[in-house]
Amino acid sequence: MFDNVWLIPLFPLIGFLINGFFGKKIKNEAVIGGIGTLMIFMSFIVSCGILLQMIGLPPEQRVFEKVLFPWIHSGNFKADMAFLVDPLSAVMIMVVTGVGSLIHLYSIGYMHGEEGFYRFFAYLNLFCMSMLLLVLGNNMLVMFIGWEGVGLCSYLLIGYYFHKKSAGDAAKKAFVMNRVGDFGFLIGLFTLYWWFGSNHNIWTINFTEIKAASHLLPYGGVVTVATLCFFVGATGKSAQIPLFTWLPDAMEGPTPVSALIHAATMVTAGVYMIGRMSFVFIKSPETMMVIAVVGAATAIFAATIGTAQNDIKRVLAYSTVSQLGFMFLAMGVGAFTAGIFHLMTHAFFKACLFLGSGSVIHSMHHALHKIHSHDDAQDMRNMGGLRSAMPITFITFLVSTIAISGIPGFSGFFSKDEILWQAFANPYHGGLNIVLWGVGALAACFTAFYMFRLVFMTFFGECRINAKAKSYLHESPLVITIPLMVLGFLAAVGGYIGLPKLIGDMFGGIPNYFEHWLEPVFALANQYSAQYAHHGAHPSHAFEWSLMGLSVVIALIGIGIAFTMYVQNKDLPGKFTATFPALHRAVYNKWYIDELYDFIFVNPCKAFGQFLWKGFDVIVVDGVVNGVANVVMGFSGIFRYIQSGYIYNYAFSMALGVVAILGYYIFK
Amino acid sequence: MLGAYLPILLLVIVAVGFGLCSLVFSSLIGPKKISALKLSPYESGCEPVGTARERFSIKFYLIAMLFILFDIEAVFLYPWAILYKKLGVFGLVEMGLFIVILFVGYIYVWKKGALEWE
Amino acid sequence: MDMISIPVVNMTPILPEIFLSVLAMVLLLLNVFSPSGKKSYLAYISFIGIAATAVLVGAGWGGHIESFSGAVILDNFATFFKMIFLLAAGLTVLISDQYMEREECNHGELYPLILFTVVGMMLMASGTDLMTIFLGLEVMSVSLYVLAGFNRNNKKSNEAGLKYFLLGAFSTGFLLYGMALTYGATGTTRVYKIASVVGQMTLPSANIMLLAGMLLMMTGFAFKIAAAPFHMWTPDVYEGAPTPMTAFMSAGPKAAGFAALLRILLVALPTLQIEWSQLLWVLAVLTMTVGNITALRQDNIKRMLAYSSIAHAGYALVGLVAGNGTGTAGILFYMLSYAFMNIGAFAIIILVSKKGETNGNVMDFAGLGFKRPLLAVAMTIFLFSLAGMPPTAGFIGKFYLFSGAVQKGYIWLAVIGVLNSAASVYYYLRVMVYMYMKEPTEEFEWTQVTAPVALALIISVAGSMIPGIVPSFILEFAQQAVKLI
User: Fold this and answer.
1) Which residues lie across from C67 on neighbouring strands?
2) How high is the pLDDT of residue C485?
3) Which of B71, C13, C187, C393 has the most beta carbons within 10 angstroms of its beta carbon?
4) Region A561-568: what's the mean pLDDT?
5) Are chains B and A in touch, 3+ Cβ pairs below 8 Å?
6) How far apart are the first and last CA of chain A?
């Protein structure tokens, strides 16, 4: 089965080619959607096969490399089109193809009747292929191809409604911010390649070879430079401070896109990349600290913004940024397994939330359309009381909300609690640990608050659109609710494969399967970290229990506040904003980050660009270029003149050439 | 040494002698009736003096080229005929191929109508 | 009576040549015996024959057989080049029929002539005797003279044929003189024997006769590959010749010229490398610069591509100046990809131009991107590849050529090459600007894309892209091909 790994990216590629080239002619939505979904589902089946085979093997044999064909061999530089199958990539392909299949299925219903239906599925398949290349690549170049590919698809899909200016702008913003990050990625790649090559004559970009040679890397120094560059790449792709502002804008794309690309898969690429190169990142304590701090800061920062947004998808977008912050926090404190675990559970519940919101928007849109209202179908202030009209959507949405809020028993609790515990108990960051934990816990509190605020505003209370429209509200069709139910189920129980040791012990020693699964991948990183880890007294179990309890309490507090403000006492939010108008304005306007960037980067760049254009370019560069061009064109004219068309001129020039050549060599 | 070239010398003498004799005797014995046509260099009717940029029909060239092509065939056939026994079967086969190739060309030319004057 | 000893001849190395010659003769007869009218079936038979020959040639990969007492050889070098010729001929046959039909000069002789040209080129690639190479060159050239003037109703085509013939004969004189001098200096015409004789000379570079022989041969081949200052015929002939024939001439005979030049310089005269690489350095710079600069001002797209073809010969010469493994393998790689991209571009020109070779200006491509997006995309790929932009075959080819030069220390040559390549982007992009940013000037019926042309386009697009994306596959073959010579 391992040998067939190349099939996994191939199927979506086939889907892309069929729908891309013939979709316009096929026209039939069922066929187009069916092909798209079937292709990714086939990939899912192959992935399952690989996973099953891997489970059957002893841990040390779970690594397999498949060289498809030699790609670029030039001197020392060698890159193959090759795939790496190991427990980490197995988790990723399962998430990408599994969640991907569900979202493809969902899209058939959601995108029904949209113009360019085939275009959507073609892009979606292309995205899946790129994402699979990214996670399966055995060297940095294949990964980079995937990395760029998902960026491109993200751009295309955000701008899917390209007739809307805001969509086009959002697509451009995403692309530019990603490019800034990609630049960092490339610099990191070259730094590492150059360092290994010039110091140890190991010219490689292959992950396995880098891993084998990673003991040569020093602690800090060049590794810090390289890893920080890689991390810049990760902040771009995974929407972390400072490159996060594109993600909320990316909600201009269709909702399935938000679910698949901007929640479940692409945005986690940065986390995956750090996991893939954990043995390099761990060698730089400085980078680890930067990652942890940036992660924690992003988690709290995005969570605060999420509390004041009224657009249902924007709340979820900020929530995604915040949750990605948690993952980076985990990576930064050396809890790679916890980070990947949260990546997986987050993929389940966040995809479910996005798809649920899509279901709501779909229904709202339909209802508003029927009464010819131009109200915003995504604004939560227009919703309310949808619980009865859309029971399945409501229940799955609620389950996922509970999961993300960290209520015990649901998947989010296990992963998030593990991260918080590791933030507190990790042996790397000394006194900073308590701050990291505190910020994380506070962010968790905000998370519970804004998520339940969303649920209460959307599904509870009175319906705020007019009664006529209300009658048109209905539950979405099966093709939409089935993915919701599957994802909701996974959001509820997906966490049980990674039970914390503490809880596992309580139930008779159930092991943490997930941790054991990924152990061989991160073993080397843990070994390296021993160099600078300073283990203090090990906290007691009682202490761990109490921290766990505390985080549950924090979550409950968040929920409680939301309940008080949005169900019990609905005047409170208004009073609150009236009491602290400045604070509300700041949060509502996303802490003015976009304006800040405009002020610091965009406007000076524009001004500088203006100067370069009007001052430098037009006068100096154009002058020189046109001058050169005129001279060249002049020569061109002369050559044209020589080309007279007369044979005797041509023969003369040939004879002249021969005489000159012979003369030079004979008389020199 | 030079004796080997004696037959050639004899041949030259005979050839030159024959030519001279014919001219001398015909001018001595033959009757002379002079006319303008007879005095012109080419009795066939070509004007010896006139513009040099005269057009010839393309057919002349075509025939001339075809003549050269098939003439070369004869040039090749001569040495082969002389060495026929020494070359044996190999020579026969090679020459057969050569002629077949030329024959293809001949058929092509014929079917194309290049041998017809009008 | 003593028998003349007949050498044992192994026919295997020239089997493809024999096969194609017989096929060509059969087609010739078929043509005269069949009623006049459509000649498409001849194109199909030719294409199948070319494909069969390709199989025959491909089967010889890895072999190494000398025959005819060392006058002909079967080796990977010859095989690689033969594949290029067959490819060029195959694509040309595919795009010819529709064009010839439109121009009302659909004479059946076209296909036998193309096949004979291929036979000549093949002899050039596999010849290891100056006489064999010359024979091949003449077979190729004579057929090409006719092909260039094939459209009898078109004045420009007639002019092209005559010019090509006169200048070609002129250059052949130089070539033959060079061969004669080389024979005089070394006493043999066998390429491998020349190498050993020259190798034993005490100071070969002081042997004026040998030197002059080499230089004259080089000028002869410089004419065939259209290197400056022996390039003057190229624009006129390329512009006047029927477009499919222009495509063929720019890809096939150019590669054949390089094959013979590589064989003679690298096998027979490696001891004179300092001398010939010096001359080629100058020729390469001159060729690239003249080709690119003149192309900047061309409006007729065939003429523009003619100058671009001159420039490309210059790029390939850079690899020969280097003369090392990377450079020479780069030439092989480049000639192969150039066949794809150039014939592809000419195929599009055929589709855009109208009867009587009108509508062939850059301006006539205006709006192609909106009217025929697929054709425009294909053209974009060809132009990108010609300009040498990643990830196309043209980029990788140039990369290997220039890196070969850099490895040998010819930094300036590589720099001049890159600068030239940058300048060339201007005139390729100009076509694209017209395709995508200008409105079409007039409404007219587009030529229908027939199945053979579509097939040729698909092959060309694939051939312009795939070697750029997975270069090592083709390069491996090229490296093996130059290893043995």
Assistant:
1) C72
2) 67
3) C393
4) 80
5) no
6) 70
The pLDDT of residue A610 is: 67
Would you mind telling me the total number of residues written for chain A in this entry? 668
Distance CA C139, CA C158 (A): 20
Q: Is residue C5 part of a domain?
A: no
Encoding tokens for residue C182?
């080389």
For C228-274, write each residue's pLDDT tens digit.
Answer: 889 989 999 999 999 999 999 999 999 999 999 999 999 999 999 99
Does residue B46 belong to any structural domain of this protein? no
Long-range contacts of A222-227, Cβ-Cβ distance < 8 Å, separation of 24 or more: A222/A191, A222/A195, A223/A280, A223/A283, A223/A284, A223/A287, A224/A284, A224/A286, A224/A287, A225/A191, A226/A188, A226/A191, A226/A192, A226/A195, A226/A280, A227/A188, A227/A277, A227/A280, A227/A281, A227/A283, A227/A284, A227/A287
> What ipTM was predicted for this assembly?
0.86
Counted domains in chain C: 1
Answer yes or no: is B67 within a domain: yes
Please report residues of C whose CB lies closer than 8 A to that of A13.
none
- Report if residue C380 sits inside a domain: yes
Contact C358, C481 (CB under 8 A): no
* Band (A605; pLDDT cuts 50, 70, 90): low
Which chains pack against B, by 3+ Cβ pairs within 8 A? Answer: C
Q: Is C26 a domain residue?
A: yes
Cβ of A666 within 8 Å of Cβ of C212? The answer is yes
From A177's Cα to the closest Cα of chain C, the distance in A is 23
Check B104 against C25: CB less than 8 A apart.
yes
The average confidence (pLDDT) of chain C is: 90
Tell me, what's the pLDDT at C77? 93
Residues sharing a CB contact under 8 Å with residue A202, sequence separation 6 or more, in sequence order: A196, A209, A213, A216
Provide the domain limits for residue C182.
12-483
Q: How many CB atoms lie within 10 A of CB C194?
A: 26
Q: CB atoms < 10 A from the CB of A542, how many?
A: 8
Q: How many domains does chain B have?
A: 2
| Residue B18 and residue B62 in one domain | no
In a domain, B45, yes or no: no
pLDDT at C174 over 90: yes
Angle between helices C301-322 and C393-407 (to 10 degrees): 30
Whether B112 is in a domain gets the answer yes
pLDDT value at residue A601:
67
Region for residue A107 given its phi and psi (left: phi exceeds 0; alpha: psi -120 to 50; beta: otherwise): alpha
Beta-carbon count within 10 A of C104 CB: 11
Structure tokens at A73: 């061999």
pTM of the predicted structure, to 2 decimals: 0.67
Type of residue at B100: V
CA atoms within 13 A on the CB side of A496: 8
Q: Out of A72, A645, A650, name the one closest to residue C167 (CB).
A: A650
The CATH number of the domain holding residue B109 is 1.20.58.1610
Q: In this complex, which chains have at least 3 CB pairs below 8 Å with chain C?
A: A, B
pLDDT of res. C185: 93
Could you list the residue range(s) of the whole structural domain that residue B15 is in? 1-29
> Is the domain of B116 the same as that of B76?
yes
pLDDT band at A536 (very low <50, low <70, confident <90, very high): low
Residue of A122, A144, A121 whose CA lies nearest to A133: A144
Please state which of the ranges A562-576, C214-228, C291-305 shows the lowest mean pLDDT.
Answer: A562-576
Taking all residues of chain A, what is their mean pLDDT, rounded to a whole number?
A: 83
Cα(B64)–Cα(A306) distance, rounded to whole angstroms?
96
| Residues B65 and B106 reside in one and the same domain | yes
- Alpha-carbon distance of C194 to C196, in angstroms, equals 5
CA-wise closest residue to C345 among C22, C95, C61: C95
Residues 6+ apart with CB under 8 A from A95: A264, A265, A343, A344, A347
Is C187 contained in some domain? Answer: yes
Encode pLDDT of A499-515 as tens digits: 777 777 777 777 888 88
